[in-house]
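Feature request, filed as a ticket because there's no other form

It would be nice if the structure record came with a short human-readable summary line next to the tokens. Right now we just get the raw output. Example of a typical job, pasted below so the devs can see what we mean:
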Amino acid sequence: MKDIDVLIEALPYIKKFHNKKILIKYGGHAMIDDEAMSSTARDTVLLKYVGMKPLIVHGGGPEISRSMDKLGKEPEFIQGLRVTDEETMEIIEMVLVGKISTEIVSELIKHDGEAISLSGKDSSLIFAHKKGARKIEGFEEEVDLGLVGEVDEINTDLLDLFVENDYIPVISPVGIAKDGTSLNLNADTAAGEVASAVNAEKLIILTDVPGVLRDPSDPGSLIQKIRISEVPGLIEEGIISGGMIPKIETCVKAIENGVKSCHIIDGRKKHALLLEVFTTNGIGTMIFE
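Raw output as currently delivered:
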């Protein structure tokens, strides 16, 4: 496609999403690889300069595990969920809030985007409660994951304050309980909750896969569009499986709470964000009502 055709194709989307909030969940390759991180940050700033209002929620699981290893602490998972004691929670905050969040802000500023790092604890941005002990398949007794939280409420006033003053908020998925305790939150879930609370037009989740594939070994089998009514059937068939299930469930909940569409895209692909927002076909899987 010629450059001029790309611009012409982008125009209706620039008009359609002008002044709309776009929640981008940074994850996977888009955060580990320096070049990909820089490219994603630049594309996020571009969205802002053409009139959109991007917000970012980021994860950091692999980085947390690496830091735990360095500090001689053994990461423990139960069916993919991190067991979080007080020491682990300190490491999580150190990595998410102290390292990753500030690195993303630095990249955005490097590309002339005004950005601010926020923890879910700042001004009670993400109020949460500790998940209780619960039954997990394969365990006889109920399992308590420790300081793992579920979101109760988002302080949208704080986010609106920054967004309306042209800042890109960069949010770490750490919640605060009523007693001031820090809680570890699932980053995808936190992104969905923030997207719903701020009435985002789109939720875009950057991952390390092309989207939902009919055949996991064939990138050409990408399902480009999924209605939320089709999700239970695709899970039953095993087409949506493993780590994709919580991502899709986050999307379904966000759409039920007013987000217009959700997109799961491959953050390893150059300019994935722009291709998803500004082209007719997009590049990943779109979930809609």
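Something like this underneath would help us a lot:
The chain has a mean pLDDT of 92.
Residues 24 and 204 are 5 Å apart (CA to CA).
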